[in-house]
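Researcher: Go.
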Amino acid sequence: MGNKKIRLSLAFYDLIIFSLVAFALFWCYKGSSYLSRNGFLYQFVLALVLVFSTRFVGKIYRQIWRYGGIQCYIRLLICDAISGILYLFIERLLPFPHIPFIQLVAFCSMNCLGSLAIRMLYRYAYKFGGADNKIGRFLRFCIRIVAGKRVRTEQISDTQKIKIAIIGAGNVGISLADELLNNKKALYVPRCFIDTNKDKIGREIRGLYVYSEDEVTLEILQDHQIQEVVFAVPEMEVEKRYKLYDYYQKAGFGLKIYDFPSMDTPNKKRQLRPFGVEDLLFRKQIKVVDDKTAAYYKDKTILITGGGGSIGSELCRQVAAMEPKKLIIVDIYENCAYEIQQSLISKYGKNLNLFVEIVSITNKKGLARVFEAHHPDIVINAAAHKHVPLMEHNCIEAVENNVFGCMNVIELCEEYGASRFMMVSTDKAVNPTNVMGATKRMCEMIMQAYSTRGKVKCSATRFGNVLGSAGSVIPLFKSQIAAGGPITLTDRRIIRYFMTIPEASQLVLESGSMANNGEIFVLDMGKPVKIYDLAMNMINLSGVQGIQIIETGLRPGEKLYEELLVKKDELEKTENDLIFVEKENPVTMEELQEKLAYLHEATSKLDDNGVREALRKVVPTFIKPEEVNVKV
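Model: Structure:
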């Protein structure tokens, strides 16, 4: 009933505008033609019927103009344009006094303009009628008279809100300003923009002045009572972002960023959130997967081992978005597998043909049952033990799981006719100085050997440390800072490459789709990061004083820097500028069998030290960490 009353009220005010315009142009205006009383009535009734019938057919009065966007105004323009065209033709056909064409167009335009004007004034009154001042009270009075509704004063006045300057007057910055200006309960109110675009500097957007990044001064910001500065330029280079962050932080302003959740996949809503270390110290996340890659995985049965882990679960999310025929998650740890299962069910429901199989890749018979049940087209082996110090003290388990587990998976791919095998590798496999890296290098050799004799196409992907993964140094540093320190660092000279979980997962999928056979793919990971500098920057970002950094000494098997390629001179480009390939001569199957037999014999003796020495013999590049670290 209330909505009907509002619609009728709006139609009534449109009728008033219509009548005033018709009276002014048809009766008062004494142009080239003069209408008698009957002629005026004829024109008035004809125009009235046409204008309001097209508006009712176009459902103009069913729209909620308080929230109306540009589409609402376009619909009104189209309806009035149609009624104007009909009016032009019908008026010429009927046997009563005609009016000049220019007068008819003027009437239609003035009537449409009046209708648009009252709707804009209505929105303006609602938008600013909540202010607790004279203008707000006047606008609330107008709404109460016109619409018969009361508008509450805003719960948080501008004096109570946090005043912000927005860096970036592009689409992202403007959308943030719109969101804050239209939300009366928002805790923030924008006062100005800061930008580098010369076409925008010195002008106003949404009533906010755009200052030049080079010319805006602290005095100007203080005049605007700015309390916080918000970064709304997602593509800003990391170096520049850090420089601006440091400048405004030292000036005493609070700092926020308007972007997607830190190091998350960009399918969630942007948030106004505090800066994270990932936003300031690492490059912007790179999107690797393209439409061609997505089409490769569509309608295929895909099996992912280690599907509950950090990389594996993200692989599952990426693949699920590509509309596979079937997705099989294989993991030994049921809790993680359950979490990714529920996440995918929540997002895709019955649209995703999803299966979860709890089995270890070391259990070949159990794994064979999974292959028999699903017959996967593509197999991605992400299951592995990855913790370097733990694997140094559990050499037998590292070999059993990483090496023989990988062997089980690739043999079953051959046996059950999978077309593609992809292996998740690591930069620690390059000239390895630890057991974990050596086992991964052995897996690469297995993959390359099978690429020479089997039907399945094989590839491996190699990347560095993954931000946000289990065992990542950043969560450790954060927890140590939150506890008041100290930060523990094995050696201040350590250098590492970093990438995000989505980047790492996309690299696997992109490279796997372009593989011919036997390649090891590497992503351009940008600049390496010195872990000591990372720790210092995290302390500075936290604002906590007195945090110490303590060196604990290198752990067993740890080296000061990681490499991505075995032979850099053999680096080849691919069709993707971010992906490179290193393809060396594979070992023969005979050599591989000898290596595996040697490892089998070593593990059967249940001696970790013996297994470590066996790894040194079967992986020629496996060297002691001191041999590498002494060069740094």
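Model: The longest helix spans residues 101-128.
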